[in-house]
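Exercise 7b. Backbone tokens:
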């Protein structure tokens, strides 16, 4: 069956990895972002992959941009990843609401008015919708906005016939993850590859999710056809920060003793208690943590060695 994917937030880490997978599958895709150039995609997969993408510059906070891209490219599937992360939402709550909440409404409206062209839609929620006890009681404004999106998507599914799948990532790590509070494990890998030290600025536990696995989950979710609207927790490996550090030290030569951690635990439950995406897409697999760290370190080393 012919497919054409539209990825919003294509310049972000997950967006770049989604594009990487779709290019490998031979699926036409359109990258939609404020300054769509493939910067992170070039970092993770090289210029040849990035140059094979159709880029569409636009702003989800403006009237007409999403509609223009839909009319020009008629996608069959949408992976909606555009959004501002925790620090940026905290710094500018109004802009955060425009991008994260109103932008998601624009995407759902675009699917609603596509005339049936859009067959599947996945979007990024977050584990930040939970508090440390596992209740749907976000502790950050970012989490509040993500929870709002889940309820908006539920309404669109139940009342307007727009099916979608929301996914709740936790600590996504891999090349290209260079923003947000939980980017620290990736920064630690990059630092020790360079022979430097790094301090992770929090403690506690989290679910570690490799970028390639996360991308595969968003693509599979966009292709799925759930009977009921739902948001799913992304599967991952629950680890303490100390275990993450030990895993990096074991996988990267010369890393021993270079990574430390300090600070409070993150204000999100370590093991998210909601439905897992594996219930909807059971064929998904997880890359072992050691392999994912080794792959990430190897790519960082290649990038550092490049002229």
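Sequence design result:
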């Amino acid at each position: 069956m012919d497919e054409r994917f539209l990825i919003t937030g294509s310049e972000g880490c997950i967006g770049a990895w989604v594009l990487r997978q779709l290019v490998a599958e031979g699926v036409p895709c359109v990258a939609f972002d404020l300054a769509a150039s493939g910067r992170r995609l070039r970092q993770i997969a090289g210029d040849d992959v990035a140059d094979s993408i159709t880029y569409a510059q636009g702003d989800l906070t403006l009237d007409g941009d999403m509609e223009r891209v839909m009319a020009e490219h008629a996608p069959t599937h949408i992976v909606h990843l555009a959004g501002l992360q925790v620090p940026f939402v905290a710094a500018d709550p109004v802009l955060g609401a425009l991008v994260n909440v109103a932008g998601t409404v624009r995407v759902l409206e675009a699917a609603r008015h596509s005339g049936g062209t859009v067959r599947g839609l996945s979007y990024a929620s977050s584990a930040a919708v939970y508090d440390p006890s596992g209740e749907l009681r976000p502790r950050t404004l970012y989490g509040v906005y993500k929870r709002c999106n889940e309820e908006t998507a539920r309404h669109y599914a139940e009342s307007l016939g727009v099916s979608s799948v929301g996914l709740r990532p936790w600590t996504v790590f891999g090349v290209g993850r260079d923003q947000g509070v939980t980017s620290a494990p990736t920064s630690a890998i990059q630092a020790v590859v360079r022979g430097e030290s790094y301090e992770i600025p929090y403690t506690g536990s989290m679910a570690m999710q490799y970028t390639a696995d996360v991308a595969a989950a968003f693509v599979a979710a966009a292709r799925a056809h759930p009977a009921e609207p739902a948001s799913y927790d992304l599967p991952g490996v629950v680890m303490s920060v100390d275990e993450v550090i030990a895993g990096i030290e074991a996988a990267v030569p010369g890393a021993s003793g270079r990574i430390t951690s300090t600070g409070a635990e993150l204000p999100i439950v370590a093991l998210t208690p909601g439905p897992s995406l594996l219930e909807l897409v059971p064929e998904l697999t997880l890359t072992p943590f050691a392999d994912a760290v080794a792959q990430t370190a190897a790519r960082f080393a290649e990038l550092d060695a490049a002229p």
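Instructor comment: The chain has a mean pLDDT of 94. The CA atoms of residues 187 and 304 lie 14 Å apart.
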